[in-house]
């Protein structure tokens, strides 16, 4: 029945969501340390596993919303393990505060590519709101926006945790994926707002 299929899809989504959020967080960490090529490799691994898995499910005639979401969880989990391995986090207490000149330099390095890329990410997700009313009417545009509101809280939480300082990276030297001793990472109270 439709209700059983919808329930299984929600169950699959509940299983897949933590793996997907974890992979997004790890990918964003590489942007902070100015190594976006490693994030791109992780994204490609996720894409390849996802497309290969979906094709396999289609071939064996087992492609359902639940199985597709489980494939997303597996793909995100495997790419997340790769990203964590490349990140090589070291959970240590900071030895001292960063000098403000270093903070400004790091913000400039991150911001000079982050600002244009944010606009390029925003554009394809929102450009249709300008053209859709003229093609199908304002009501259809409102329906689309209302549907997208279901996804927005997840995206806002992801952006909040990554962009506003809950994933802290203290950069001492240039990042080297083969030897990360010069870079210290620390997970700082990601969910401290739950403590009250």
How is the topology of this model organized?
Blueprint: H1 2-32, H2 36-59, H3 65-87, H4 100-126, H5 128-136, H6 138-148, H7 152-163, E1 167-171, E2 183-187
Antiparallel strand pairs: 1-2
Helix pairs in contact: 1-2, 1-3, 1-7, 2-3, 5-6
Word description of this protein:
The chain is about 70% helix and about 5% strand. The protein has about 200 residues and is mainly alpha-helical. A two-stranded antiparallel ribbon has the order 1-2. Helix 1 runs antiparallel to helix 2 (about 35-60), helix 1 runs parallel beside helix 3 (about 65-85) and helix 2 packs antiparallel against helix 3 (about 65-85). The protein is globular and about 60 Å long.
Using brief descriptors, characterize the structure shown:
196 residues, mainly alpha, 7 helices, disordered C terminus
What oligomeric state best describes the polypeptide chains here?
Answer: single chain
Biggest sheet, in brief? 2 strands, antiparallel
What class would the helix/strand composition place it in?
mainly alpha
Q: Beta fraction of the residues?
A: 5-15%
The end-to-end span amounts to 42 Å
Give the SSE string. HHHHHHHEE
Unreliable runs, pLDDT <50, ≥5 residues? 165-176, 179-196
* Rg (CA only): 20 Å
How many alpha or pi helices?
A: 7
How helical, in percent, are the residues?
A: 55-70%
- The shape is globular
Give the neighbour order of strands across the main sheet: 1-2
Q: Calculate the mean pLDDT score and round it.
A: 76
How many β strands by DSSP?
A: 2
